[in-house]
Structures are given as C-alpha cells and as structure tokens.
Design goal:
The chain has 9 helices and 45 strands. It has about 900 residues and is mainly β.
Length: about 900
C-alpha cells in the first residue's frame, strides 16, 4: 500500500475521536493566534484560512476537554479551509504514521522527535486559544425584517453583511424576518429579492434593522442608489434627509441634450447665471444657481468630479465640457445649502457631483453624432483591469458653427455666429488594495475656443489639471481618503464696443487671465457604537491669478492670492429604526493677500497695493428624517453657509454688450441662513413617488452686479455686497412608473427671490423688493420615457422657465418660454444603438439677455437662445448594458 494511502484523511472517516479533538483545538488556537496578530515562529504554514469548524465541533469535540462550546464559538467564528486542517492533521497528529514508510534512520529519528513534540505543539496552541478567547468579543446579533413599501413582508430575501473578505448571509423566513451573527466592527449590509431593487446601507452596529425594498422596473435607475455627496459617506438615498436627485448613466444615454448643463436642466431649480447653454455661451455666464440664491457669474453651487472641485478657481464659473460624458457613471445633485458645513465656500446653493467609471474589466463606451449647425461630436471612454491595477483613457471632441444670437431684424455687419469647439483628454491609472482601498492618479488637458457673436469678441482657454488620491479602510481605524489636486490655466478674451447700427465695432479690452491652483483634502469616517457614524476632515486650497488688461489708455494688471482652509465634522445618528439625525459643523477661514493693481500709462507704472484681508465662519447643520409607516417620510434641516468672493469678482472687469461691470476689491464674504422641511410619499407599491420640500434662504452680503450709472456710455456697473436677499419657495418632484417600460416624471420650483434690504446711494435708488437678477420665479419640467431596446427607447422632455429680469433695477424683462426635447434610439445588437435627438424641437425662440442701446431703435438688443438642434448618431457599449 502506498505510503500516502496510509495517512488517514479528514474525509475518510478513520479519524480517532481523540485525534480529531487535538486537531480542532489546535486549528482553532492557530486561527485565534492569527486573528490577534501573534504568530509564533514555525507556525506560519498552518495559517491559511480554515473551513467551517462549526460542523466539526459536534462530531469531534471530546467531552470533558475543558473547552466550552461558547469559547469554541468565539475562537472559531471565522471560516477556514479544509486543506489547512488536513495539513495540520497530517503534520502534527499523525506524523508518526510516516515512520512506517521506509524512511532512512535519520528520518526516523527526526520523525520520532517530531512525534514527541506534536503533543507540546497542540497543548501550546490550546493555551494560546484559551488566552485569545478571553479577549475575543462576542459576535453581534442583528435581527430585522424585509418589507415592501406597503408593509407586506418579503420572504426568501437574501440579506448579506460584507466587511473586506469577511461576509455572512441569511435568508428571510416566511414572515420576512432574518438574523445575522456579525463578527466585525464595521461594514455594509445589503438586502435583495427577485423583482425588487437591491438596497445597501452602512452598518452602524444597529441590533434591529428594517429594509424596505421597492419594486424594480426595466426602466428604473435604482431609487435605492447609495448616495455619497449628501453626507460624504455611503448613505442609502432613502436614508438621507437631503433634497437629492440622482441621474444614472442610462439616463444620460437617453437624454436629448448634448451639453451637461442642458442635461441638468431637467432638475427643477437648476439654472445658470444666464439662460444660454454652455454650447455657445461665454464661460463667465456659466455659474450655477439653485433654490433661487442667484449667481453673479461665479457659481453659488459647488460642482465636483470624484470629490475634486470643477469650479474654475479664479472665476468660480464651471466649464461643463471638462467632463467626458461617456466616462460618467452617475450624477448626484443636492439642492440647498445644507451641505455647506461639509463642503464650505461655494456650496451655498447646493452640490453637484459627477462620479466617473472605474473599470472592472476591459470596457468601451463611445458615442458619436452629427447635427445641425454643422455640429460633429465624439465622446469615448476606454478602461481595463489587470489584477489589482486598472487604467482608463477618455476623450471628448466637439465643434459647432453655432448661430447668430442677434435677431435678424437688428443684425449688422459685425454680427457673426456664436460658435465653439473643444478638445478634452483624460488619463487615469489606479491600483486596488483589497475590497475597499485604492490609489489613483489622473491628469487631463482641455482646450476651448469660442466666438461670442461679433467679429472681434472671442475667448480661448487652455487648462491642464491633475489629481491623485488614496482611499484606505480598516475595521479598527475606519475609512480614510486623501486627495491632492492642482490646475494651471490660461484664459484669453476680447471685448468690443458695437456701434448703434451694428455695422462697426471697436476693441475696448484685450484680456489675459493666467491662474494656478493647488489644493488637498483628507477625510476620516468610522462607525462608533451601535447607532452613530463619525466623519471628520480637513481641506485647503490656494489660488493665484491676475487679470491683465490692455485697454485704450494703457495696461492694467490686477490680481492676488486667495487661500481657503476648513475643518469639518459630522455625526450620523440612527436614533431609532425610523428616526435618523445628521449633525455637522464646518469652520472656514478665508484670506485674500498679496493683491495689487498696477496701471501702466505712457510706459510709467503705478502700483496700488491692496490690504490683506481674512474672514472666518462657523457653519452648523442639523437634519432629521423620520420614516413613518406606509411609505411616508418627513424631513427637516436648518443650516448656515458661507461663500468667499472669487478673484474674478474682486479684480476682473468684463463687458456684456453696452454694460461694463467692474470688479470690487472691497467685497466681503456672503453668509446664508437656511431652513427646509419636506414630505416624501410612496404610493401604489412604490409606482408613484412624490416629494415636497419647502425652503427659506436668507443671504447677508450677497454679491450682485449693481448699476452705477445708466446714462453713461458704456453703462457702468460694479459688483457689490447688498445688505440682504431672501429666497423662499417650494420644490415639487414626482415619478410614476406606469409599467415595466413606461415612466412619467416631473418637477416644479417656485422661488420668490428678492432683495430684502439695501442701503441706497446717490448713484442708485433702493433695490428693496426687486427680483434677484437672472432668477425665474417659476420652473417646471415634464418627462415621459419608454424603454424597450428591442423596439425603441423614447424620451420626451418639456422645460418651462418663467419670466426673469436681466438687471438689478428690474427694467430688462426676459419673458417666459417652453421647449420640448426628443430622443429616439433603437438597439442594433452587440452593444450598438442608433439614435436621433432634437433639442427645442419646435424651434421656440426666446431671449437669454437684453443689452441697453440708448441711441438705437429699439433701445435694447436681445440675445437669442439656440434654435432647433437636431442630431443623429451611434453609440457603442462593451460589454453591452
């Protein structure tokens, strides 16, 4: 008989009960030693993962072994591999068996000594196991129930806990109940069932849990999406008190709009500083306003890409074409200033976050189209993974001949199309460490050229940026994320004065704006106890920039440095299974220094230094969410927010038509106090979801473009801190899933945004009661979506924008308008889809701006929004969605 056959196997049934006991006790001890990071030399080979010892316990535990079942359970609570037991069994317990296999005398002596030592080794393992068991925490018992939105229990649902490589799962019984024994300090719990959307949430040591799973439809984007932006950590959307909206990559793929800012207009309350699209608008008009807080060119909402700011560091506006569309995995929009305590300056009106893809395998996503106004575009993302390493490259190419923004009846020789083109390339390389940790480095280059509607007026941008980051997570320390990012930008623009007959123009300003920014952040989060999760972090960014202007009388060089530093903390509390509290506090420090104005006249420079300044702010936030029965939830939040003026607002001048607006080096920071309350309701087995949010936002020191002299040529305006503005209103959102293929959605915002306090001066009358410029009182969106890829994917969207004023004195009224967009697509198989899309399909012409022209007839020159923009194209997905 071969020697190997004489060695008894764990599976052979020939184990002696006493030997099995030694083996299991020794293996459990080794496992306990490993868990406590105390590994005696020579025992490393016995430490691969061990299989389930529980099933061996009943069979093999000897009576009177002095090792209780409770201690055994504590030591052997993690799974281990059978082959390790076999190795331990062969090597320690039955090593004497090898002495019969014809070894040499020396081998027999060695094995004889080993046989004498095996008992000592087993005994030592047993002692170590007993010592380890004394310090080993008992597993947490978690019980709960899985229900649908009507309160009906879901039997057979799978509930799973995951933390690194450790996981444990259970299935709900006939009454929807489950129980898990969790031997870990942190992780995530997920619940899933056939026909329902999966739900995942962080585990905060709750002993009782309730999961409400919502029915799944083919056209669904997971309403149970895990939201990150609102709390800076993974939070189920239904567990967040924030007024949040999510847009998936499938939603993006079937949206008629091409530019990302036009995609976001389906979110009620989202507006830019002006009505025009980023396809052709000047970058200085692309700041974001939400909840009626307004914008002054600079954005009052923070825009992020994977936690890295997208807002221009000098101007505060947003280059929406700096994100490759096909690289986006989803978009999160948080309306309101509740997150300002976590994100600081610029988050006064809300936060928008673009999440980009991380490849799990080789994948390709591409879209190319050609449209009216001679508009070709290509968006391409390619990614791959090799072991723990992954990499991706993406590019976005766009060009349009544009359209002439001045109405035909008022055009002159100087009027030309507002066209644009851009190229963007992004490369990323990363490495994963385990399931939750990773390192990445990313770099991109962006180039853009625009003509702004006349022969002379144009602007160009060249921009390079980099970002690198580390995410690291352990059960003892928690989750740590670190980011470092920088940007180098060169911006160039020309301004002109146009004659009243629009047949000639004169160059008034040739402006170049170089700027650099460097910043970083660090964040830590960890569950503490059974009901709370703590978050803390630090951020810092410094910007250096100047506006260098060649004007008819000479040269002006104006600029400085700006530094923002902030600390923040957050406490997420699960007070009861249905009541969630969110408390946070942010401290912001802003400083403006090394600022100066150099004026060169007849080659003689004059230096005017500006005093260094700084400001501090404390921004608290308290939020509550109460999940009532029958699909009803109540939310409430109170908060403060802070926004520092940008270098653009402080030191740069710009001209819009016949109005020259000057920067103001004496501007100070804005401060907002806000309150919001809402109701969420799910009806008809969650086919109908409704949400209502009331808001009240009071801003002191709001920066507004204030007219100084309306009779001069050009009209003179200046950025100024008005005493107080107030925006009150309501957001309504609804979604109705009629069937598995048909879905209706809509939203409405009413915002009464006015100047509530202003100190008039000799040059300007009181502005009290005037509407905040560029903020419509009413907006609503409607959407009908049909998804059946084998037949057609159809998406019809309607957008209504109410009337608004184009200046602070409320004399330039922009009338309301309504546009309809359409998308039609059909799958050709193998990941290929052909599509056609049209924006403003009924060719509704509306005004985006009004420029006073005192000596012309009529006395204003309007700028038109885009005509119908139609395109056809192909998209490709590998692997197919």
């Amino acid at each position: 008989m071969p020697c190997s056959d004489r060695v008894p196997s764990l599976h052979s049934g020939r184990l002696q009960k006493k030997s099995i006991a030694r083996l299991i006790l020794g293996g459990a001890a080794l496992q306990s030693v490993r868990e406590n990071w105390v590994v005696p030399p020579g025992l490393e080979s016995f430490l691969p993962l061990l299989p389930a010892l529980k099933r061996w316990a009943k069979l093999a535990r000897p009576s009177g072994a002095g090792f209780s079942s409770t201690s055994f359970h504590r030591v052997a609570q993690k799974q281990v591999l059978t082959h390790t037991l076999q190795r331990c069994y062969n090597g320690l317990v039955f090593s004497a068996g090898f002495s019969r296999c014809g070894q040499t005398a020396a081998q027999k002596i060695f094995l004889g000594q080993l046989a004498k030592l095996r008992g000592l080794v087993a005994a030592a393992c047993l002692v170590l196991a007993a010592l380890s068991a004394r310090g080993q925490a008992a597993p947490s018992s978690v019980k709960g129930v899985v229900e649908d939105p009507t309160g009906a229990v879901i039997a057979g649902a799978r509930v799973e806990f995951t933390s690194g490589n450790y996981h444990v799962a259970a299935q709900t019984n006939s009454v929807g109940q489950f129980q898990l024994e969790i031997a870990a300090t942190s992780g995530t719990i997920s619940a899933r069932a056939a026909g329902f959307l999966p739900l995942q949430r962080p585990w905060n040591h709750e002993s009782q849990l309730q999961f409400v799973l919502h029915p799944q439809f083919e056209s669904d984007y997971a309403s149970q999406h895990v939201l990150v932006t609102a709390t800076r950590i993974n939070t189920a959307l239904e567990d967040s008190p924030a007024d949040s909206v999510t847009i998936s990559d499938d939603d993006l793929a079937s949206t008629p709009a091409l530019a990302l800012d036009d995609v976001l207009r389906q979110v009620p309350g989202f507006t830019l500083f002006r009505r025009s699209s980023s396809r052709t608008a000047n970058p200085g008009t692309q700041g974001v306003s939400m909840r009626g807080v307004g914008a002054s060119g600079a954005s009052r909402a923070l825009v992020l890409v994977d936690d890295i700011p997208l807002n221009d560091p000098f101007g505060g506006w947003v280059y929406w074409d700096r994100v490759v569309r096909e690289s986006i995995s989803d978009v999160e929009v948080v309306r309101g200033g509740a997150d300002a305590s976590l994100y600081g300056s610029t988050a006064m009106g809300g936060v928008i976050q673009f999440r980009t893809r991380e490849p799990e395998q080789t994948a390709i996503s591409a879209e190319s189209s050609w449209g009216s106004e001679n508009t070709p575009e290509l968006s391409l993302w390619v990614g791959t993974r090799l072991g723990p390493w992954y990499g991706s490259a993406s590019t976005d190419l766009f060009r349009t001949n544009g359209y002439i923004p001045v109405p035909e009846s008022q055009r002159g020789a100087v009027d030309s199309p507002a066209d644009s083109r851009h190229e963007l390339t992004t490369v990323e390389l990363g490495r994963r460490f385990g399931d939750f940790s990773r390192f990445f480095a990313r770099g991109s280059y962006f180039n853009e050229d625009r003509h702004n509607g006349t022969v002379i007026q144009l602007n160009t941008t060249q921009l390079g940026d980099f970002a690198t980051g580390l995410n690291y997570e352990t059960k003892n320390v928690g989750a740590i994320s670190v980011r470092l990012f920088g940007l180098f930008e060169s911006y160039y623009q020309t301004f002109s004065a146009v004659a009243s007959d629009r047949n000639s123009e004169t160059l008034t300003d040739e402006q170049s704006v170089p700027s650099q920014a460097l910043g970083g952040s660090a964040q830590w989060s960890r569950p503490v106890g059974r009901i709370q999760t703590l978050v803390a972090g630090f951020e810092m960014r410094e910007v250096h920039g100047s506006s260098n202007d060649i004007v008819p009388v000479g040269t002006n060089l104006s600029g400085g440095r700006e530094r923002t530093t902030r600390l923040f903390g957050e406490d997420l509390l699960q007070l009861t299974p249905r009541l969630i509290a969110n408390l946070s506090l942010g401290y912001d420090h802003w400083s403006d220094f090394s600022a100066r104005l150099i004026q060169i006249r007849s080659n003689v420079p004059t230096l005017t230094p500006y005093a260094d300044r700084s400001s501090d702010a404390l921004n608290p936030r308290a939020s509550l969410l109460d999940r009532l029965r029958h699909g009803t939830s109540l939310t409430a939040s109170g908060y403060r927010a802070f926004r520092a003026p940008t270098l653009n607002e402080l030191y740069r001048n710009f001209r819009q038509g016949n109005t020259l607006t000057s920067g103001n080096p004496d501007l100070h920071a804005e401060r907002l106090t806000g309150v919001e309350a809402g109701v969420r309701q799910s009806l008809f087995s969650d086919r109908l979801s409704l949400r209502t949010t009331f808001f009240w936002n009071d801003i002191t020191g709001a920066i507004v473009n204030v007219t100084r002299n309306q009779t001069s040529t050009p009209i003179l305006a200046e950025k100024e801190n008005v005493d107080r503005t107030l925006s009150t209103g309501v957001n309504l959102d609804g979604e109705f899933r009629i069937s598995s293929t048909l879905q209706l959605a809509g939203g409405y915002q009413f915002a009464h945004a006015v100047v509530s306090s202003y100190t008039p001066n000799s040059l300007n009358p009181s502005l009290v009661g005037n509407w905040i410029p560029e903020v419509p009182h009413q907006q609503f969106t409607l959407q009908a979506r049909y998804v059946n890829p084998k037949i057609v994917t159809a998406n019809v969207q309607g957008t209504f924008v109410g009337q608004q004023f184009d200046n602070d004195q409320n004399t330039l009224l922009l009338k309301r308008f309504f546009t309809v967009d359409l998308y039609l697509g059909r799958s050709l198989g193998h990941g290929v889809e052909v599509f056609a899309a049209a924006e403003n399909m009924f060719n509704q012409r509306y005004y985006t701006a009004l420029t006073p022209a005192p000596n012309a007839n009529p006395p204003t020159v309007p700028s038109l929004g885009p005509p119908i923009l139609a395109r056809i194209g192909l998209s490709y997905q590998f692997p197919k969605r």
